[in-house]
């Protein structure tokens, strides 16, 4: 099974699902030069958000800590610790800030 992100050009294969470790992210360079942070939870569900921390400008969200708050998955930035909802991209600590989210799916490898 591969993890794929929806980008302007269509579905982009990022990696094998088995390469992702629950609670840890990986960064993916996208065709437009931006980056995505890709995560998988303990049930095997993948998530993808923009990798750039909007508070610092650094591309580090893939290195953040994954957790749950009120039944929703989030990643905490490794720099200033703001938490970003992995489903909506919304910052849980500042409702006026959000990061981009990407549609993500798993696909069988041939």
Could you explain the architecture of this structure?
The structure is a single chain. Helices cover 0% and strands 41% of the residues. The chain has 110 residues and is mostly beta strands. The strands form three sheets. The protein has a three-stranded antiparallel β-sheet with strand order 2-1-9, with no helix packed on it. A three-stranded antiparallel β-sheet has the order 3-4-5, with no helix packed on it. The model has no long low-confidence stretch (mean pLDDT 95).
SSE layout:
Layout: E1 2-7, E2 10-16, E3 26-29, E4 35-40, E5 46-50, E6 65-69, E7 72-76, E8 83-85, E9 104-107
Antiparallel strand pairs: 1-2, 1-9, 3-4, 4-5, 6-7, 7-8
Organism: Streptomyces polychromogenes
Keywords: 2Fe-2S, Iron, Iron-sulfur, Metal-binding, Nitrate assimilation, Oxidoreductase
InterPro entries: NirD, Rieske-like_NirD, Rieske_2Fe-2S, Rieske_2Fe-2S_sf
Secondary-structure-derived class: mainly beta
- List low-confidence stretches: none
What sequence of helices (H) and strands (E) makes up the elements?
EEEEEEEEE
Helix content: under 10%
Radius of gyration: 13 Å
Number of separate helices: 0
Largest sheet: 3 strands, antiparallel
Distance between the termini: 9 Å
Shape: globular
Task: Give the total of beta strands.
Answer: 9
Strand order of the largest sheet: 2-1-9
Summarize model confidence as the mean pLDDT.
95
